[in-house]
Amino acid sequence: RGVSEPRAVLAEFGCTLPPTNTTVRVHDSTADTRFLVLPQRPAGTAGWDEAALRRLATRDCLVGVALPRVCVPPPPPPPSSPAKMLEAGRASAVAEYGSMAARALDAAYDNGAACRPMLGAWVARNLPLSHAERAAAPPELLDLQYGAGTHERFDFLPASTPAGGAAAASNADAPTLLYIHGGYWHMNSPKENNCFIASALRRRGANVAILEYGGVPTPE
């Protein structure tokens, strides 16, 4: 618009020129000179691919008012095989945790310590409910083995009413929810403490299986 209607553009800036005795000549310098700003490649970027280098070419670099800067190196390419992925994971863990003393490492994985302020109230509320649920279950459906490990057991708590009302003939027709409790493979939270979750589900016609598994330092 500065080329095609210069008087209108000047008026928008508050400069109104007399229409009769003033001539406006516009020189379009872009028509005379074309230029390209090529940002200087930063040191330390040898071997970077095009996608990584493109992230350095910001708007300010391309108009010549800033220099490209390397803030964070580009992420390494993903490992090409499961074996390389495992090795990369081990290297990352060693780099992050290898310098920690045993006590500090144990504290980092002690989820129980982080939850201790709320753990007492949780146990007081739910532990009696869990024991009552197990006590009401048929003994032959408790501590069923699903693997060779010592902790590879589960409790099967059958529905207290047939699923779907009169249409279902037995608990075999009821849906079954498999519950795997949390605990970070470290926190003392066995399946026996989590049976309270079955109460409302069983009343609504669902079987509940609560699974146990091995924990640190000997996960199975």
Architecture overview:
Mean pLDDT is 79; it is low at 163-169. This protein starts with 5 loop residues before the first helix and ends in a 9-residue tail after the last strand. Strands 1-2-4-3 form a 4-stranded mixed sheet. The protein is α+β, with helices and mostly antiparallel strands. The protein has helices at residues 6-12, 29-32, 50-54, 59-62, 82-97, 102-108, 111-136, 198-203, and strands spanning 144-145, 153-157, 176-180, 207-211. Helix 8 links the parallel strand 3 and strand 4.
What is the strand arrangement across the widest sheet? 1-2-4-3
How many DSSP-defined strands? 4
Strand content: 5-15%
User: Strand pairing plus helix content: what structural class?
Assistant: alpha+beta
Span of the ends, CA to CA: 75 Å
The description of the largest β-sheet is: 4 strands, mixed
Give the ordered list of helices and strands.
HHHHHHHEEEHE
Overall body shape: elongated
The percent range for helix content is 25-40%
Mean pLDDT: 79
Number of DSSP helical runs: 8
Low-confidence parts lasting 5 or more residues at pLDDT below 50? 163-169
Rg value: 35 Å
